[in-house]
Design goal:
The chain has 343 residues and is α/β, with parallel strands linked by helices. It has helices spanning 6-13, 17-24, 32-44, 51-58, 74-89, 103-115, 133-140, 164-177, 193-208, 226-241, 255-267, 301-316; strands at 63-68, 93-98, 121-123, 145-148, 158-162, 183-188, 218-221, 249-252, 277-282, 295-298, 326-329, 332-334. It contains 12 helices and 12 strands. It is elongated.
């Protein structure tokens, strides 16, 4: 069935096209009763505005660009759910692009989105994004930008995320409270700000409890494609178990490191937590159903996405604060069988 037009609605209701258009835009010039008549008729007859014509007329695309590391990640998917719901409710489409953890690809994504005329951008920086110059150049053009999830100390930037250092401290402290002293960490890096913050939280907890830092217990995995990352996790876990004084517990700092570690430990025949306890950052809703149920620092992914999108829509619509701010959402620790009290 073809989409009805403003002219069709006007003819059916005996109104001018201009009146119908203003009614649908909630103009103060049109009475509430007429607005209701028009809105009811449009809804019943499935009226859809011609977005392309509207964007040409108003000089606005009605689109928001979103750049993430990869959509092949449950944590990212949940953030995208939060972003999508908020943007749709606010009348914006989203265009999602993936950096694949590459700075060059991230820059290319931003250029493409800018060329498409998006009205604002939500960016979760790639693992290689240390220098923020390309993002600063974008905001200098007047483009509204909000960074989400992978936040950092960067004045003048709107950001939404969590306190990574606190989350890592709580995870490590939980292991210590449950009787573990030889605690290893799998992290990504080097030079990735959010990962460095999680590493710092791990060190803080060790120091607070008088436990010496062991360089051999800290292993870095390059954040590449899924299969390469899994191979790196496997190699590092084997190396940890080959140590004369092997660790009793393992803290993993990202969602993918957590799920890969659980899988690999099973494949290698290690019992969790009897041979090694495990806790990680993870957003999977199935953590409680894994074998064993996985202890996690739970990041509110949906809320991060929702809040970031709300902040950006406010900036686009001119309702946002003039002063850039960083919104820190609380983290929660869910203790389960994988890190139970040491026996």
């Amino acid at each position: 069935m073809p989409n009805i037009t403003l002219r069709d609605i006007a003819k059916a209701l005996g109104l001018s096209v201009s009146t119908v258009s203003k009614a649908l835009r909630d103009s103060y010039e049109i009475s509430e009763s007429t607005k209701k008549r028009v809105a009811d008729y449009a809804r019943v007859n499935h009226y859809m505005p011609n977005r392309m014509a509207k964007s040409l007329k108003e000089g606005k695309s009605g689109s928001i660009g979103v750049v993430v590391c990869s959509i092949d990640n449950s944590f990212v998917s949940r953030m995208l759910d939060g972003i999508d719901g908020t943007c749709v409710a606010s009348g914006y489409d989203i265009i999602i692009m993936q950096s694949k953890e590459s700075l060059l690809q991230e820059r290319a994504c931003l250029k493409q989105l800018e060329a498409r005329g998006v009205e604002g951008m939500l960016i979760s920086p790639s693992a290689e994004t240390i220098d923020m110059e390309h993002i600063d150049q974008l905001t200098a053009t007047g483009m509204p930008v909000v960074l989400f999830d992978r936040i950092r100390k960067h004045p003048g930037t709107f950001q939404v995320g969590i306190n990574n250092r606190e989350g890592a401290f709580r995870a490590t402290q939980h292991l210590i409270d449950n009787g573990y002293r030889r605690i290893a960490m799998l992290n990504i890096g080097p030079g990735i700000y959010f990962a460095d913050q999680r590493g710092a939280g791990y060190c803080d907890a060790l120091a607070a409890n008088g436990i010496g830092y062991r360089e051999t217990y800290v292993r870095l995995c390059a954040p590449t494609d899924r299969e390469t990352l899994k191979a790196s996790v496997a190699a590092n876990i084997r190396a940890l178990f080959a140590l004369p004084d092997k660790p009793e517990a393992l803290f993993t700092t990202t969602d993918q490191l957590s799920t890969h570690s659980l899988s690999i430990l099973h494949e290698l025949g290690y019992r969790i937590p009897d041979d090694i306890a495990l806790i990680g950052f993870s957003n999977t809703e199935f953590a409680s159903m894994l074998t064993p149920p996985l202890s996690t620092v739970y990041q509110p992914a949906f809320e991060i996405g929702r809040q970031a999108a709300e902040t950006l829509v406010g900036l686009i619509d001119g309702k946002g604060s003039g002063d850039a701010e960083t919104i820190m959402l609380p983290v929660q620790l869910a203790a389960r069988e994988s890190s139970r009290l040491k026996r």
